[in-house]
């Protein structure tokens, strides 16, 4: 496994820096709010449900962060020293292509990324949220990150709905908490004499710090849940048919090797265990270089 040089990890683009920082800040922030603030109000401390959700939260959070970090750290770019000999390339003259920017002959399915300025093996796309390219070597981590993001945002969404319901004493409304707070407490701003208590009025209308943070995270939760569902729906054929995003758009299914092998090309030969943690070794059954579109069995076992 080749790792990216440390000085290349932090993206050069300002928007990507913001998105990577958002992932690194918001995921732990949302986890903290849910586990420390929301969960103790939903379930009794020490109950079976409380322990189950604590463990589930820990599992999802650790997999989200570690798959994100591995996706960023693992280098999917081409190592020029591993490129095939001219003789090998002559066997597939149409499949190899010259990259003038990297000054190399690049194998089939690789593409040059303008942002990373490298050629990437079995390149799928450049991800702005991780600030790196997603290709042959780091596809596993990227996909698990997205899948765990979907599961986590679904769990967080359900927990937040229940939390809002209980927090408001059964008066659940699809509105942000600060506004709900203003609406529910407005009758308490008059004292016994019927005079307006400005201090109480402000207290009821202006949301607390926690309510503001929760409202923002709850709103983001909707966006993330919807986005990951759309993303996985759109990219599902990549898992099933073993194609890259570029090949899917150009309807090139020449590298489809059947469901099992296609999945192994992403999740590795120990894919039944690879979901537990990105640190579980699951070697890829292909070197990402010697693809043969006509003879689909060639190249396996490397
Ligand atoms: Zn290149
Ligand atoms: Zn890139």
From TrEMBL:
<keyword id="KW-0472">Membrane</keyword>
<comment type="similarity">
    <text>Belongs to the DHHC palmitoyltransferase family.</text>
</comment>
<feature type="domain" description="Palmitoyltransferase DHHC">
    <location>
        <begin position="95"/>
        <end position="248"/>
    </location>
</feature>
<protein>
    <recommendedName>
        <fullName>Palmitoyltransferase</fullName>
        <ecNumber>2.3.1.225</ecNumber>
    </recommendedName>
</protein>
<dbReference type="GO" id="GO:0019706">
    <property type="term" value="F:protein-cysteine S-palmitoyltransferase activity"/>
</dbReference>
<keyword id="KW-0812">Transmembrane</keyword>
<feature type="transmembrane region" description="Helical">
    <location>
        <begin position="20"/>
        <end position="39"/>
    </location>
</feature>
<feature type="transmembrane region" description="Helical">
    <location>
        <begin position="51"/>
        <end position="74"/>
    </location>
</feature>
<feature type="transmembrane region" description="Helical">
    <location>
        <begin position="212"/>
        <end position="233"/>
    </location>
</feature>
<dbReference type="Pfam" id="PF01529">
    <property type="entry name" value="DHHC"/>
</dbReference>
<dbReference type="InterPro" id="IPR039859">
    <property type="entry name" value="PFA4/ZDH16/20/ERF2-like"/>
</dbReference>
<keyword id="KW-1133">Transmembrane helix</keyword>
<feature type="transmembrane region" description="Helical">
    <location>
        <begin position="141"/>
        <end position="167"/>
    </location>
</feature>
<dbReference type="InterPro" id="IPR001594">
    <property type="entry name" value="Palmitoyltrfase_DHHC"/>
</dbReference>
<dbReference type="GO" id="GO:0016020">
    <property type="term" value="C:membrane"/>
</dbReference>
<keyword id="KW-0808">Transferase</keyword>
<keyword id="KW-0012">Acyltransferase</keyword>
